[in-house]
Model the fold of this input.
Amino acid sequence: MSADALHPSAAAEHDAGLCVPVAMPPDTDPAAVSSVIQAIEKALVVMVHARQGEVIAHADHLAEIATGLLEPSSELMEDRVQRMRTLRQVFAEGDWLTSEQLNSLQDAPPKSKSQPASDWKRRGRVFSVSRGGREYFARYQFDAMYEPLPVVREVLEAFGDVADPWVLAAWFYYPNAWLAGDDGGALAPKDALDRRDEVVSAALKRRTSYVA
Done:
């Protein structure tokens, strides 16, 4: 497969410059090819702009490019570790249902075990997260008959699109500064779904405030 097919941005720039074919090692992970190509492009820019006799002076810069490709920064690692801690806590301390369980809890369960959960999610009435290759739905999204609470749809619309549904799960789980409990402390959105106006407003404020 050509580099152009794996890295479209490179193909778009070839018309403006010289194209140099590069052979990848046979054991290269296909998923990493795009990142490798980007690193090579950056290295070439450094070398091309280096005047005669200055290539050695840029060796450290080239090494940084290669090292950055192979070793994530400490800040990135800490961020990923913190994210995993958050996910574990949200999942471990929550009540989660699979689509099969929701199916069995219906008065008239559809033949397809993925229904009605799949349809509810498609229509924006509930959200789900993935863990261990399985899909889970937070119990607080449903009423006593295991039908989606109407307020959940409104909260999801107010919250807006998110690439990572775990962001939603964390938002529902942790105490929110915009929601005050009876004791005056912050209340988690999942515990305030009976206060429609307040919880929807909290979701809207997330878009325009640094406060969760």
Observations:
- The longest strand covers residues 134-138.
- The CA atoms of residues 176 and 186 lie 5 Å apart.
- The beta strands are 96-97, 129-131, 134-138, 176-180, 186-187.
